[in-house]
Amino acid sequence: MTTTPEHDKRIAEMTFSSVYPHYITKVEKKGRTKEELLQVIEWLTGFDEKKLQDLINQKVTFKDFFSQADLNSNANLIKGVICGYRIEDIETPLTQQVRYLDKLVDELAKGRKMDKILRTA
Question: What is the SS3 assignment for 23-83?
């Protein structure tokens, strides 16, 4: 699926620190914890809590965030629709990576079991 250049640019320039509080609110509202969210983010990106906090403090863009990430080799197993786009069909790598993260946060908030979210089951 093709995203527009404007859409991709907007995602690339968005700061992770502007979205992260919304991730926390979303999962906590559904009874999950910040620690579970951190586990999901670390699985996808390789960032531990300290590194993640450093990136938040630096107000890095999603472009910089994912350029520093060591993407999990099973990330390509993340499939489904998020924000109207089928993740596996998104052609722009950065946009796809951001949508991977969005999908994992959604799965966590929806109560999916952690081993399924982390694609270990």
Answer: HHHHHHHCCCCHHHHHHHHHHHHCCCHHHHHHHHHCCCEHHHHHHHCCCCCCHHHCCCEEC
- How is the chain split into domains, by residue range? 5-117
pLDDT in tens, 2-14: 788 898 999 999 9
Cβ 111 vs Cβ 105: under 8 Å = no
From the list 53, 58, 57, 42, the residue with the least C-alpha distance to 101 is: 42
CB 79 within 8 A of CB 88: yes
CATH among 1.10.8.290, 2.130.10.10, 3.40.50.1260, 3.40.605.10 for 5-117: 1.10.8.290
pTM above 0.90, yes or no: yes
Give residue for tokens 């982390």: 118
Q: Give the tens place of pLDDT for each residue, 49-92.
A: 999 999 999 999 999 999 999 999 999 999 999 888 899 999 99
